[in-house]
Specification:
The chain is of the alpha/beta class. The protein has 11 helices and 14 strands. The protein folds into 2 domains: 5-23 and 87-295, Vaccinia Virus protein VP39 (Rossmann fold); 29-84, Sun protein, domain 3 (Alpha-Beta Plaits), CATH 3.30.70.
Amino acid sequence: MEFKKSFLDRYSSLTDIEEFKEYCSMELRKSIRVNTLKISVKDFLKRTKLNLEKIKWCDEGFFVKERVTLGNLNDHFLGHFYVQEAASMLPPLALDIKEKILDMCAAPGSKTGQIASMMKNKGLIIANDYDYKRLKALTLNLQRLGVMNTVITNMKGYFIKENFDSILLDAPCSGTGTIRKSPGTVRIYNPNMIRKLCADQKGLINNAFKILNKGGSLVYSTCSLEPEENEGVIDFLLNRYDDAKIEKIKFKGLKTSSAILDFEGKKYNEEIKKSVRIWPQDNDTEGFFVCKIRKM
């Protein structure tokens, strides 16, 4: 895989660049999440012929240790499992499960389906996405999984006015953590794209915190490794709201890296060290960032 010099120069200051390049050049391990709305993990393991390895941080998650087209399997059609990257399972696990939850940028529905499973199809999820074209995938995935407690809405996240006790903002991002799956991300990478995305992310997190009830929690996540899209966005929120406090999250069996608190002359709030940053080489997955904020 070829990397732009500007990309390598930037990331050399953030991580072990040789190890990062090595893992980005490796094929990404396939993984699935058993959909407990339709079948228990125990019953799924009894019926499946797949060669599986348990994902340490998610009780319903498994790495698939063989080459197979998962989308062609009967269990996929039946909604017994969802093809979901192992690191993508993290944000819902950090979420407080309440009666009414907002998934602000929900399509294509992997995390919405996971939240519905955690809620056992009770309560209410508002699954919103601004891109009308993506709603088809969201709708079909939730139908296949047997999700029945979810209302789908179509608007930009910063226009939502309803209040919630629990919000997931898995923000649109540059996707630099997904290079193993999408090598084209490196080719289109440029700083201007990052700046535009940051403006959108700040608008989304600002409104998410505004509509969060007191005592409620907001989980912010991206599949980006860019400090500006992660620590920089959280720093923006902490500087804007005195009642925003970061809570430390612990995921069992997950290896994490230190948050970036000093980047290109900018120093971020020390509290951000409580957030979770993982590089592809940490757990042989995609890269991801997760932060949980409480409204005091």
